[in-house]
Write a structure and sequence with these properties.
single chain, 179 residues, alpha/beta, three-stranded mixed sheet, 6 helices, globular
């Protein structure tokens, strides 16, 4: 198995599958190679499963032209503020700001200062998935983690969030057309 090793000032060994299926192992600076190799071997089935998923997503990738990006950004700025307000009112939260970003590796994010951000690529998803991402990020305004309390907040608003979450994970990758 071809694995890229990245050492950093972290405490645990993490395995990441890149969009092209490449495996990256991130490990503490002083972690012995035998420990790293053991973790990779223990996670071999998981790695193979995630690589297959990534390759399927790449095969179904949506080609993003500059025109499509412009259209999606416009659509995101028109749709997302209303969805954020709708769910923020239901959840009793108030984000400080809402921005549309060009993020490629995450659908949305929430800062500790209360700002929620959404990738314009979210406009390529179905409405139920968009609502899931909005609720997910707004839930972080109450719980800045993924604890059971966080998921309880999400479930209170979207009882079928697990289905939506799974659907989001199977969304095709949005790749920009080379210029």
């Amino acid at each position: 198995m071809n694995v890229a090793l990245v050492r950093s000032k972290r405490k645990t060994i993490g395995i990441y599958i890149k969009p092209d299926g490449q495996v990256e192992v991130r490990a503490p600076l002083r972690s012995p190679m035998r420990d790293i190799e053991r973790v990779v071997q223990e996670k071999a089935a998981w790695i193979a499963e995630k690589q297959q998923l990534m390759l399927q997503r790449q095969a179904n990738a949506v080609q993003i032209t500059p025109e499509l990006e412009k259209q999606c950004r416009k659509q995101a700025k028109a749709i997302l503020p209303g969805r954020v307000k709708h769910f923020a009112d239901i959840m009793g939260v108030a984000p400080t700001t809402m921005r549309v970003t060009g993020a490629m590796t995450r659908w949305g994010s929430c800062s500790s200062r209360g700002s929620v951000n959404f990738s314009w690529r979210l406009m390529l998803c179905d409405d139920d998935v968009i609502d899931y991402v909005v609720v997910h990020e707004l839930a972080h305004l109450r719980e800045m983690n993924h604890s059971p309390r966080f998921w309880a907040i999400v479930e209170q608003v979207l009882p079928d969030y697990k289905r939506r979450k799974l659907k989001l994970r199977t969304q095709p990758v949005a790749r920009s057309v080379p210029k």
